[in-house]
Amino acid sequence: MIVAITSGKGGTGKTLIATHLAEALARLGHRTTLVDADLDLANCAVLLNETPRWTLEDYLLGRCGLEELFHETEGGFALLSPSRGALASPREAMLEVLDGALWEAQARSEFVLLDTPAGLEAPVLWALDRAHLALVVLLGEPAAVSDSYRLIKHVCALVPDYPFALMVNGVDSAEEAEQVAARFDAIVERFLGRSIPYMGHVLYDPELRQAIQRQEVLLRRAPQSPSSLGFHALAERLLHWRAELQSRTEELLLAKEA
Predict the structure, then answer these.
(1) Looking at the DSSP assignment, which residues form a beta bridge with residue 202?
(2) pLDDT tens profile 128-182
């Protein structure tokens, strides 16, 4: 299953969500690959304090093989990084390389998480076009709400029933998160005529801020902290969503055979 972690606005914490969700899934025993699809500001390896030997750009330039791209992290999941620092290769060529790497990632993983840039540039559309689900990371700020709505509106104009889900980051309580999600869903329902399922939230947590500053993974530093519990709950809901999707697919296949 391919999940794009995305947002309409930068600074919502989607890379943080992507890295910790990958580790939470791995801790639950599921083979997971995290693909850093932000070609300009790749930060997954930085947040994880890991140094992959090879990158997608190395593969494009013939310096390594496809299998060598998969860096096994301390958290038990694989990481694919686009480059070391500024990207020197053309984006079009990099997206072609991403396609080949994504094919290999699917073959070796139960979950492939795509950490996308913010907005609607080519890598975002590439990721959304290949994902089975887009998880939109939302903050309770007007600009974040507006930009995320713009993202969903653009995609729904092309694919009206595109599978979106929503999670809220950096809130003080579950009640606040539910209010933010409900307000956003009401906007989408009013103007686009559809609803966006709510997948969960991650609370603001001083432990999380310290972990980021020290380049530590919170799930290892403070596994029972409020944010860590939020990441685990999000992983559990993603597993539930996948099970429901598989069930619906099997029902459709049985109906066609009948």
Answers:
(1) 169
(2) 999 999 999 999 888 889 999 999 999 999 999 999 999 999 999 999 999 999 9
Contact residues for 218 (Cβ-Cβ < 8 A; gap 6+): 20, 205, 207, 208, 211, 225, 227, 228, 231
- Of 82, 90, 92, the closest CA to residue 39 belongs to 82
Question: Hey, what amino acid is at 45?
Answer: A
CA nearest neighbour of 140 among 5, 4, 12: 12
Number of domains in the chain: 1
Going by the DSSP 8-state scheme, the letter that residue 222 receives in this structure is -
Domain that holds residue 228: 2-257
Q: Map residue 5 onto helix, strand or coil.
A: strand
pLDDT in tens, 81-113: 998 877 777 888 989 999 999 999 999 999 999
Partner residues linked to 115 by β-bridges: 5, 36
CATH code (residue 24): 3.40.50.300
In three-state form (DSSP H/G/I as H, E/B as E, the rest C), the secondary structure along 239-254 is HHHHHHHHHHHHHHHH
Count of C-beta atoms within a 10 Å radius of residue 114: 29
In this structure, the strands spanning 78-80 and 71-72 are: antiparallel
33 within 8 A of 114, measured Cβ to Cβ: no
CA angle 65, 49, 54 (to 5 degrees): 10
- 171 near 180, Cβ under 8 Å? yes
Residue 165 three-state SS:
strand
Residue 188 CA to residue 123 CA, distance in Å, equals 24
